[in-house]
UniProtKB/TrEMBL annotation:
The keyword Ribonucleoprotein does not apply. It comes from Cyprinus carpio. It is found in: Cell projection, Cilium. WD repeats lie at residues 100-141. This is Intraflagellar transport protein 140 homolog. Residues 1228-1345 form the IF140 C-terminal TPR domain. Residues 413-592, 609-694 form the IFT140 second beta-propeller domain. PROSITE patterns: WD_REPEATS_2. Keywords: Cell projection, Cilium, Repeat, TPR repeat, WD repeat. InterPro entries: Beta-prop_IFT140_1st, Beta-prop_IFT140_2nd, TPR-like_helical_dom_sf, TPR_IF140/IFT172/WDR19, TPR_IF140_C, WD40/YVTN_repeat-like_dom_sf, WD40_repeat_dom_sf, WD40_rpt.
Amino acid sequence: MAVYFDHRVEAPDSSGAALLISWHPSMCVLAVGSVNASTGGSVDLYLQQGEHVELCHVERGFSPSLLLWHPTKPLLAVGWETGETVLLSHPSGELTPLPNNTHTACITVLEWSSNGSRLVTGDQAGVMAVWRVDARGKLQGSPLIKHDYSKPLTCCIFRPPPPAEDVAMLARAAVSGDESALDMFNWKKSNKGAAFALGSQEGLTFYISTADGSVYSVDEQARSVPLVSVESAIQTMWYSKRRDVLAVVTDSLLLSQFSLGPEGIAQEISKVKLSGRGVQHADIVWTENGLLITASGEQHIRLWDVELDDHYALSLDESLGFEKGELLNCVSFCTSKLLAAGTSRGRVALWHMVTVSDQKGDTKIHWKLQTPAEVEGNISQLQWGSSSHLLAVCSSSCVVILSEHVMCSHYSQQMAAVQLTPTQLSLANFSTNTHITFHTDTHIRAVQVTKDMVAVWNGKYITVYEPSGQTLHSTGSFQCESPALVVHEENIYTVEPNRVQIRTPQGTVKQLLAFSEAEGNPTLLSVCGSYLAVGTDTCHVRVFDLTRREAKAMGVTKNLSELIPDLGALRSVKCNASGSHLSVLIAQVQKNSNVHCENLYLNLRTRCEGELAARCPVSQFWDENEPRLFVCETVPVNSDLLCSFCLSWQEDVLVVTFFVTQEHGLLLQDSQPKPATLLSLLALDTPYYYYICKVPSSTQMVVRRALRDFVGLESCEKQTRDAMLNFSFYLTIGDMDEAFKAIKLIKSEAVWENMARMCVKSRRLDVARVCLGNMGNARAARALREAEKEPEVEAQVAVLATQLSMLEDAERLYKSCGRFDLLNKFYQAAGKWQQAVETAETHDRIHLRTTYYSYAKHLEAMGDKNLALVYFEKSDTHRFEVPRMLMEDNLSLEIYINKMKDKDLYKWWGHYLESQSDMEAALHYYDLAQDYLSQVRVYCYLGNIQKASEIANETGNRAASYHVARQYEGQDEISQSVHFYTRAQAYNNAIRLCKENNLDEQLMNLALLSNPEDMMDTAMYYEEKGTHMDRAVMLYHKAGHVSKALELAFATEQFGALQLIAEDLNENSDPALLARCSDFFIKHAQYQKAVELLVAAKKYHEALQLCLDQSLTITEDLAESLTVPKDSSHLSEAGRKELLEKIADCCMRQGNYHLATKKYTQAGNKIKAMRALLKSGDTEKIVFFAGVSRQKEIYIMAANYLQSLDWRNDPEIMKNIISFYTKGRALDLLAGFYEACAEVEIDDYQNYEKAYGALTEACKCLTKAKVESKLLILTHRLSLVKRFIQARRMHEEDPVEAVRVCESLLDEKDLDPAVRVGDVYGFLVEHYCNHGNFQQAWSKIEELRSTRPNINLSLYVSQTSLEALQNAAGVRLVYRDTNTHAAEDEEEVEEDENINH
């Protein structure tokens, strides 16, 4: 929590009321513009505590209108209402006026460029000028740009420059070998473009607005172009560099956003009317991330997030000291996320902005309002300074600089002091239970207390006070500018460079504690017990013993920089009460805060990262008297709340207590959240924590909270306190023997109860049993023993907490272990029925109805019957419980039953009315309940059996029908009785009556409807009587006694019945019975049924023989039934295969080749299976079967079959033929196939090259097969083909040789099988025709015709050559075109008889 010191500016006497304030962006210098009605206006500069800078005073006879500081230099631009503009330098007070003829009206626009090299000025008349300012801050001559817009100018902003190159990053990249980075540093490399810009480039384009709502863009070339236009005067503008968007807000609070294109074209993307009063002088502030904040004299300020398109409002809280109806006039926002607003009652409201992330990762902004600072008068203007802790406030009466200061507080020797205001202290003496509120004459920057002294430091002086009754009186004051101050007994400890001063209360220096240059300057002091801890600015620490007359150093100075990596700075240094341990709160570089504990004697260093792995400490304290106890406040890691200023409203603050010893190091003793109503921890003094309150409690700012182990023992004596501390310590280290020794002499029941309560926290049930025994709490001990059956330790501890009345802990434990069933019972036992019901509905639904029922019983006991009705209904027990509850109020019960319209309730009410002999009303409710049995029973009781029969017939209710049947049987009306027994499905009673009364016709139907026992009984009845034997057979069959049915059917020769019975026979039937039935069917020519029965009887050969004898078609189902499973006991494996082959032979004879293949395969005879498959002609299955069989014979059979197909036009078949012959190792057959392929190539396509290749493959096969005779013949054919191929190839180069080779081929005797004679003659004829030797060509044709009279010339000689030959010889050849050589013998060549020579 922070307080604000107010420093009123030391304004000159000539200054009037302040109008304008402006902080320098980087220096602690404030400019104030004021106006005096008699002397005119003035501008003055002040330092951070309000000191006036004498040389910097400017006076004019008129009022200043605008103030604006240079971005970096101590140069202030001042605009006056007459148009004059001057530049004021700090601290020299040098004035540089702008030329007087530039502006003649009130200055309304002043704007510096980002680097301050340009200054834009504008006035009420619409004149705009741009000035150059050099690096020394000197104005350079006349304006660079001057333009008259003829409209009053309202505001101006510069467009941010583009991001410049990061020189440090480029340098690192260049060192690491990045060529592009090296090239950018090389100025002479012209191919890489211009050299990069060092430093940031200054953007000189700016936007300026006029009172008519126009915005103009002005660039470096002095071009001014209209950009956008809105409806009214523009009050403020903002530019989003990330989105290239210009946002403008008008006087009427109309927000418009424009997207700026690369060519300077603006396009409107949104327009929205902001809520709030549109006043001309509303205070509007933009933040860097696009948050628009406005204050317009209302009771709240409004915020609009332009980036997220979200808006909300912040209002004041009267509980923090604000008044009702207080108005907010002005706002200011600083980079440290602090928002300040000035009110009409002289208060400064402060909000801190915090970004909070939820579990889903979404972020939300929270604003936390703080206690206000107060000044005099109505606040008109606020501005944060370059330092976030400085705030300038301009009110109607003065200008005040508020300096933020963390609230001072201190505790020692049962005395606590807390700063309330800059000049007010709250003092509490806990030993005497007194409280004093004390006012000082100066601001309080530090305070230290002991039981006999209060020391206050204001930054320059230390004042010492002593208690005197209910007030304090000053005993001395001395000058001291020490940044650190502590008090011990009668000594005051202060610091100065390289030493610590020990002073008397009057300021006299008694002793100096020197530090070397290497050790640094002392900056941190703290006292605990009689030991002083000192920390320096070079991270050195030292402890001094104060028990003697003079302070004496303990051990050596420790340099923490050598011990702690990434050490940033020391934030706090504390030692324990014995001086044996030192704790240091540090800030690590780019890491979180940590607490380090140093043992000065053993040089033992322990870090608390185990306990604080996900948290950062923000404060630390040692116990005032117990050297082992240490406590610190922690917040989550990465929290932006790590300052004491923010700690006031941080919710997740954990107070962590440790035991620290040389032997065991750091031991976590307790961890508990900071109470929400308390601000921060002040001290630890067993048995209490001391906290500072957020809001004073009972006029005190400090309250005490007992340590966990001392709840109920706050006022115990020192012996008990020491015993409890030892017990807690030994319990923490797990030494139970020593723990019991520490407390065995304690007889107080309260102590044992407190220890039992501590066992709830530590979950030590074994210790709890001992505590309960010493307490004499038998009930709790029994409950704890019974709770041991629960598997969760938390559930057992919750039982203990319940017995100790720690209900909140019990509730939390049940929730933590997920035992919502026990939590439900806990709530019920505690009378928290709403929580019990909610728990059952959300987590314990298995006990939901039970919970409803228990709650209803509770409500009934409490007399709330109406609500009890609701929960009895929810528990679904209302049908019994509600009549019981309302039994004494028949009228209410009847109304409830009629309202519910529940059949069970109607039935119950009918029974009740029947018991009261109200039969008519009972019948009515039985009818509503549809209770037909009760209706029939009542009607029969009333003697109206006819009505009862009608109800039974109409409804078909079995119970009602049975009751009526009994009534009719009693009256000897047998037919009616049988009818209603049948309706009631009481068939045995109906059968009994039919037998007794010889109703044989009805008996059969009743028996068929009844169970098998009744069927058997009826069948025996028919058999004994000797009549209706067919019925007896049927009943035996239906009852499942098939043998008896067959025996009776054979005996009585009932062939139709036998037919029906045989349909139900299967393989599970008696084999002898099956054989007997099959013989019966054979005799009566029912062969198919006989076969099925023989198969069921496992007589497979007889069944197959019957199929053969009677020519029965063997279907696939029949074949499968004839197939004996493997490992069957009825046939051996050889017999099984023989049977399968017989089945397959039968299928072959019947033409069912696929089925035959299947059975041959099952029999293991793949050769026969392949033969059967070949007969089927199913090529796909043949190929597949050959592939899976992998037998030579089958491969050859498949290949032979495939050769019978059209393999010439199907490459897949040809491929399979070659593959199968190869796999079957039938190389001679493969060679024959290659010869056939060669003949096809020659005959069909005259492709001797492919034929040569096929013959070559054939030769290879014959060579491998070693068939010499065929190989010689094939080799000769191959040579002939090769000679013809060579002749055709050499024809282009050597036609004469080609002709000679062909002539020699014609002389071969066995040419034709290898090379077609027609192809050779055709080649020669083509040759002679191409060379014009038609006579020779004709002679070759004559030779061919003489050797092959029926040859078709068109197959060998081209049509062109034949026509040319005919024209040359005058011979007309008649032929028919064909595409195959096979037609040679069928084609005739006719010669035209008319030869024209």
